[in-house]
Specification:
Distance between the termini: 60 Å
Order of helices and strands: HHEHHHHHEEHHH
Shape: globular
Structural class: mainly alpha
Low-confidence stretches: none
Strand order of the largest sheet: 1-3-2
Mean pLDDT: 90
Radius of gyration: 20 Å
Number of strands: 3
Number of helices: 10
């Protein structure tokens, strides 16, 4: 067996895979600038988990354009998740530094660490990647965040994010959440309802926007205060 030839073939196929990955990632990013994202890796994972646990798979999603979403919801999510969304290029390094320092303290106390991802990062992760924690996935998240910031507008990033983000058990996107929790279209959400949905996003399968706990109510009120400060200053 020619070891040299084997190495050459391995190198050739590695190059092809790398080039293929870059082409596919760029093409899919450009494509999703114009068409709805049909499904995400997380949606597939959740459905698989439900099947293996003996449950009927639940997948509630209804893609709607940005114009059919309440401005209250956009403002609530920005207030809660990423107040510099309209300004940064995918990454809020000041927030990342603050979260890193906070997580050091939380680790010492044995408490769960907090994420410092921007809306752009969360959107990239949801659309293109699996939710596992690893350095490779984080590197890919950075890569796809750059791609969507380059090829999509901020309005498109928000539109995709609010259509694919998990908002409950088997519930994805603003329209499905609005219909499930408040029996109305996403365009009709009040400020308080939008703030409640935003309040549960850190853990949407643990918390319920339709039946908010006292903790979620406190978060909602905090988000409402932030919304009042930001109203009129955010433009996508």
């Amino acid at each position: 067996m020619n070891i040299k030839k084997i190495k050459q073939n391995c190198w050739l196929w590695t190059n092809r895979l790398v080039v293929g990955f870059f082409i596919l990632s760029i093409v899919s990013t450009i494509l999703f600038r114009f068409i709805p994202v049909p499904c995400t890796p997380l949606m597939l994972i959740r459905c698989t988990e439900q099947v293996f646990s003996g449950e009927f798979p639940i997948l509630k999603k209804d893609w709607i354009p940005m114009k059919d979403m309440s401005s209250n919801l956009v403002l609530a999510v920005i207030s809660s998740e990423d107040q510099k969304f309209a300004e940064h290029f995918g990454f809020d390094f000041e927030a990342i530094e603050k979260v890193a320092k906070l997580n050091e303290k939380l680790k010492k106390k044995g408490k769960p660490i907090k994420g410092g991802s921007t809306i752009s990062q969360q959107c990239a992760k949801n659309v293109f990647l699996f939710p596992q924690r690893s350095y490779i996935r984080k590197a890919l998240e950075v890569y796809f965040t750059f791609l969507i910031e380059i090829f999509w507008s901020k309005k498109r990033i928000m539109e995709v994010y609010l259509n694919v983000i998990e908002m409950g058990n088997g519930i994805y996107g603003a329209q499905a959440a609005s219909k499930t929790y408040f029996k109305k279209d996403a365009k009709d959400l009040t400020a308080a309802e939008a703030a409640t949905i935003a309040a549960v996003l850190p853990n949407p399968r643990k918390w319920n926007a339709g039946k908010p706990s006292s903790y979620i109510t406190k978060r909602k009120n905090s988000i409402l205060r932030q919304m009042s400060h930001l109203r009129g200053t955010v433009e996508l």
